[in-house]
Amino acid sequence: MLKDFQSHILDNFPELTKNKFLLACSGGLDSVLLSYLCKESEMDFILAHCNFRLRGAASDGDEKFVKELGNRLGRPVLVTHFDTMGYVHSHRVSVQMAARELRYQWFKGLMEEHGIAYLVMAHHADDNLETFLINLSRGTGIDGLTGIPEATGQIRRPLLKYTRDTILAHAKEMDLQWREDESNADTKYLRNKIRQEIVPKLKELHPAFMENFERTLGFLKETQEISENELERVRERLFQRENQYLKISVSELKKLRPLHGYLYGLFKEFGFTEWQNVAELLDAMSGKSVYSAEYVLLKNRDYLILAKKTAQEKGVFEIEEGDFKIDYPIGLEGKEVLEKKDTTARIIYLDKNTLKYPLTVRKWEKGDYFYPLGMKGKKKLSKYFKDEKLDLFSKQEQWLLCSGDAIVWVIGRRADDRFKVTESTKEILSVALL
Amino acid sequence: MLKDFQSHILDNFPELTKNKFLLACSGGLDSVLLSYLCKESEMDFILAHCNFRLRGAASDGDEKFVKELGNRLGRPVLVTHFDTMGYVHSHRVSVQMAARELRYQWFKGLMEEHGIAYLVMAHHADDNLETFLINLSRGTGIDGLTGIPEATGQIRRPLLKYTRDTILAHAKEMDLQWREDESNADTKYLRNKIRQEIVPKLKELHPAFMENFERTLGFLKETQEISENELERVRERLFQRENQYLKISVSELKKLRPLHGYLYGLFKEFGFTEWQNVAELLDAMSGKSVYSAEYVLLKNRDYLILAKKTAQEKGVFEIEEGDFKIDYPIGLEGKEVLEKKDTTARIIYLDKNTLKYPLTVRKWEKGDYFYPLGMKGKKKLSKYFKDEKLDLFSKQEQWLLCSGDAIVWVIGRRADDRFKVTESTKEILSVALL
Fold first, then answer.
1. Which GO terms describe its biological process (chains A, B) (predicted)?
2. Phi and psi at residue B225, in whole multiples of 5°?
């Protein structure tokens, strides 16, 4: 296996022969064999071991084992201790998810700190098959069946083409020692059941089962990429970029077939994994919205508005310099014009050089004041609303156009005096309520 | 289950409540239960049973059982006997393929004969899972994982959403009798192994394994359709229809990524399932070709030519009436022109009204003769070739343009006198060698 491994590295991972890398080592069979193979191939690496403190003395035994392994191989060992259960409780995630997040955060920090470009992990072909079967048992789409890649970003998995049997046989042949790897606490039951009871039976179905499985993953990945090309094309056609958001025609979305497949595919990269929610939004009343971790998707008349949640949460929407037309959070059109006409409730004229970009659109807050157009001096917005006899709902729905901290326009009602067009104005910006 | 089955039929197969259908009945658990369910639901159907004569007395026992079942249910039974092994040997196909082809041919004939629109089959959810695992063990693409559909063409599979467990439980509850179904001779070993040893373990992985599996198939089908949309778009863009073939730019094909996935997807519907062969053709010498059951794909300079094999085998290519431009089997351009110029070796002028459409392009055959332009009387082509001192290769490569049985042009050499432009010619067709 060593010779095959070495030519596999030369053919597919030449970057690992020229750069120092981090090797994630649990002390289990796979990562121990990988450490020996890398050592025998005279590669330059640091072992990195996470002690998740999930199994008391066993966890500490693993740590001790990896430190000794580093000594035997003459390679440095970096170790960290995690309060995994603390993370589980504070972040409300599963043990598996906690271990994963803690581990990758630590690896990332180490790589930055030591100027290391690659992280090498010991996943093998049976890991892909186990994950395939676990995802199948839970229900999944093509993304859950295509397996982990050999190389993605800074991560490299040079054992991915080898089966567990091959790895075990070689480790025995080399008379290696390893610790039983039990770090996948959450899926331990499932993985063990699959490994011991199901995979051996599957392999009996065909003498080349694992090779055929690898080929299948390859075919599925290609279909996935072809489908992604189609989704990208549809996104380019339907997702119109506006200032801080994307605007998507509902009637165009509804034409797509298969509709649910497209809705899932188009919005999954924004974290919307429940296509039913998106599907319901298509026929929802204007103003309805659904949220993902980072995005909000909002029905606004005939469009869906896709925006970062931060803008919506803060309620502050930016408008960059230049002519603009926005639908969200309120319909506004701004353009440079040659001459001023009468300012009305629905259209105002501004001296462009008095404005500070980006302009912002936000709701009113306690303490807001402005200088009503044509008046000397300032007025509290609360007083203005009272004088205008606005009801609570109208006040809540009132948007303001602002330049820095200053209100430019109580939109649809009254402009501010400070930004008006004067004799010395050189560029005039008209802003109209749509 | 009966109530659920009846509402499932009303919701998804209303056509089966209004039309008589054929019910494929092996005498096994699934088709026997389906027969009872259809009878209880007062549907109008004929039982159709195939005796494949693969298991001697057992096969005849199945036939007897289905006939009795028809009597009990008061439904007619149609039976046929096949010489399955004879078909296997004469058609060089597997037993499973033979049984499949014989069965569908018979069903199709019966439906035409009796004016029946639908064929109802008793496939269930576990069949899909078994097929999924068999294909997985052999290596497959997404098409091999998405399962059989509930409705396709004239076939309906109303039991597809039910698991084997549900079907067995209901059959026992109704105290039904059935024959052990062993018709899938070829995959019997695999299916039994999967059914008895693997599926029960998979179902233990998740309490809703089968529902999740059904959802997964749905998601995969959607990805498959999205990918098909992309492939269709690429076909529309790259597959130019010419007379009797499609012409595809090699350089445009080479730009597609992932290349192999696209090659497979674009050409599979023409029976080219080995993308390696197609991939090799892209860089092959002009004139190389690969064959599927019905099509030939030929490298012709910067293009792939995709044509029905029949045309290529017969070596006769048709040209429909009107202006034309073909690259295959030889580059020719024909157009109506207002006046005749000098006929040369590379361009000829014809009296269009003397031509019989479709024109054909073919190689020469023994006995061919023509009336060389400007000569009185006919000449054997073999004599003409000899006089022109053509070598064997040039003779083999010589194409003829013909109108009915008559040669119009020994292409690139000499036109025929019978089709020349005369004073009474009303429409002139020029044909040029490209």
1. tRNA modification
2. -65, -40
Query: Could you give the percent of chain B with pLDDT greater than 90?
Result: 78
Residue B211 domain-assigned? Answer: no
Contact A416, A371 (CB under 8 A): yes
Q: Identify the residue whose tokens are 């249910």.
A: B73
Q: Residue B78 maps to which CATH number?
A: 3.40.50.620
pLDDT given for residue B239 in this prediction: 96
Domains in chain B: how many in total?
Answer: 3
pLDDT by residue (tens digit) across A378-400?
999 999 999 999 988 888 889 99
Q: Which whole number is the average pLDDT over A274-286? A: 91
B30 has binding-site annotation: yes
A258 contact residues in B (CB cutoff 8 A) = 221-222, 225-226
Tell me whether residue B212 is in a domain.
Answer: no
Q: Is residue A214 part of a domain?
A: no
Region A192-216 average pLDDT: 94
Contact yes or no for B219 and A140 at CB 8 A? yes
Q: Chain B interface, mutation test: which of A129, A130, A229, most B Cβ atoms within 10 Å? A: A229
Q: Are A340 and A258 in a shared domain?
A: no
Check CB contact under 8 Å for A216 and B140: yes
Annotated binding residue at A367? no
- Asked if pLDDT for residue B187 goes beyond 70, the answer is no
With an 8 Å Cβ cutoff, is B104 touching chain A?
Answer: no
Residues B166 and B245 in one domain: no
Rounded CA-CA distance B332/A430 in Å is: 63
Residue A327: pLDDT over 90: no
Provide ipTM, 2 decimals. 0.80
Say if residue A321 is in the same domain as residue A288. no
CB distance B380 to B333 below 8 Å: no
Domain ends where: A311, A344, A361? A311
Q: What is the mean pLDDT of residues A127-147?
A: 94
Residue A136 with chain B: CB contacts under 8 Å: 202, 212-213, 216
Residue B193 contacts A, CB cutoff 8 Å = yes
Q: Is B341 exposed, middle or buried (0-12, 13-18, 19+ CB in 10 A)?
A: exposed
In a domain, residue B183? The reply is yes
Structural domain harbouring B159? 2-205
Q: Which of A269, A290, A311 is the last residue of a domain?
A: A311
Within 111-140 of B, beta carbons closer than 8 Å to A belong to 133-134, 136-140
Q: Note the pLDDT of residue B185.
A: 47
